[in-house]
């Protein structure tokens, strides 16, 4: 049972992770495990423009209306420092038009090959709730494509401190340091913190009862 808080309540409704990407779904399941149970659903949300956090939040608002319940959406970026953050949230379009070699060649004229992968997860409890966003960032550099090319731009991104690209890394290793895992870690911590705060408040009420021998005893209970 997934738990989230709104106005001091723990809401026992499954979270819908909005995605049609099987590889992304597989990776999110591997990272989250059983910490936050969820179901997945593909929705045709509009392609928005703007800052990553704003895009993610707006997608969460739109998805929560369609689902009429709690949703989780993700937006990922690949940001080249030499290009002031481009292609950023538009990397999917760049990849479709240019391919991996083309993305790498965008930095051909620049000495600075540094980049960072950014992930924005936004959670909305429902249509009228303000989404909460969790950001994960992993620094690295852009390299000629290496490794399997079946998951986005993984073949051209080499995280700092590693000699392998995302695509070359074992899944378990990538999931320890990726931008996606960092954002999801924050989501899990936030969810557990809110749940514990809610339970703590509910345990403050103390009720008194009587035993058969007439002695009065107290016990805490949830309200």
TrEMBL record:
Molecular function terms, GO-annotated: dITP diphosphatase activity; ITP diphosphatase activity; metal ion binding; nucleoside triphosphate diphosphatase activity; nucleotide binding; XTP diphosphatase activity
Binding of ITP, residues: 19-24, 59, 75-76, 151-154, 174, 179-180
Superkingdom of origin: Eukaryota
Subcellular localization(s) per the UniProt record: Cytoplasm
Entry similarity comment: Belongs to the HAM1 NTPase family.
HAMAP family: HAM1_NTPase
UniProt name for this protein: Inosine triphosphate pyrophosphatase
Species whose genome carries this gene: Juglans regia (English walnut)
Upper lineage: Eukaryota, Viridiplantae, Streptophyta, Embryophyta, Tracheophyta
